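Run folding on both entries below.
>entry_1
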Amino acid sequence: MKIDLSDIISSEDKEMSKQAVIELKAFHSRLGQFPIVKHAPFELTFTNENNKRLLIRGETEVTIAIPCDRCLTEVDRVFPIRIEKQLNLCDDETDWDMVESNYMTGTKLDVDQLIFGEILVSWPMKVLCREDCQGICKRCGANLNLTECQCQKTEPDPRMAAIQDIFNQFKEV
């Protein structure tokens, strides 16, 4: 959703509140595509302070389904989003935040891009379905949280593979 801010930018000391609808259906990044399961309405407040600064404040909550890093089970991760942005409106100074931001195009604010940036910054390093997640079996792919597989549990040290080959060649039957 795009919000036109030309009225608030042109009016000194004006404040405006707006409820925005999040149109993002999924979060796309280099890590993959993650569906947005649930989102609350985005309450935004815009304040023009003496035609010098535009303050953008907002709050919402977005829930994204992310696979567990160990067993690949979908985990609903809640991202509380609080935004406080300040954009310079003075003509004599260049506002580098406004120039470099991908959420402002002229006087239009792209709410989805604003939320995308906040989710990207707060993306977790590791997602686990539970703290003691067992993961999946390396051989058969079974989810070890749900079942025990019949695969061999001990794996030989790969650094000892050459010595193991020597023992296997000269094994007496």
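>entry_2
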Amino acid sequence: MEKKKSYGLLIIGAILLIAGIILAVITFNNSYQESVTVGNTLKEVKAQISAINDGTATGDLDALKAQQTELSAEKLSLERPYSYSLALVFLSVLLTAKGIYNAVHGVYKSTKTDIRRLAMAGLLAALCYIGFAFFKIDIPVGTEKTAFHFGNVFCVLAALLLGGYWGGLAGAVGLTIADLTTAYVTSAPKTFLLKLCIGLIVGFVAHKIFKLDQDHDAKYVTKVTILASACGMGFNIIADPLVGYFYKTYLLGVPQDLAANLAKINLGVTSVNAVLAVILASLFYFALRPALKKSGLFVNVTPVVEKPEK
């Protein structure tokens, strides 16, 4: 099959990257700086509420709680523009990288999108969103927060079913939208990068190395599924707190001591999320694999190439 060099994606990615960087600089110096000021006020209000609850101070508790709610909403709305622009930067970097690859190595002329894979990616992205937005336990840390959630379960499952590229995109898109539409809006760019990497790692181990989508016995499928899931989530246990520390310190301007505390807490939370993701994603894959094969919906990520007869 003939390849042809393509420059369209590179041009689009470069334009979006420039626009994203400009927007990021503008929004960081304006609305995000205002959100920092609001955050400091919010921190003081929370301290007053805590003091009243402890009996070390007096005041109108209802009024303070109402002010806390109002300030939280204001802080979130001021953080959104900068978070959106950072998410655009991260996405445009991915598009530019793919565009460079297409320009150097070319793309197959007759490549067509697998509609089944596209539909399943959309479904799994929605499940990633639901797993985080509706099945999470928030853990406040100062003006920041982290959470136990089930979003990673479907991120790993997507890579097992669809391969690293489509599975990674499904997890990245679903969980990034979940961040952007909840109180975790500032984590959206970091989420996009990390969930994409989880999908790529799980997909690489499962399909590129062990060819999981081909016919194997149950014992082999069990071992490979758990191993691939563990590799992806093992990466996340290390990368999430580490990347989170530098992301919050240098892109969000969070004080280093608070960023360090968040990283330590996040390490424990991420570890629990990882264990849940490995167990549940493996169980879901075991259940879905035979059902998808029987219905003709199973996606062959690494199809067997038949050798011509001599």
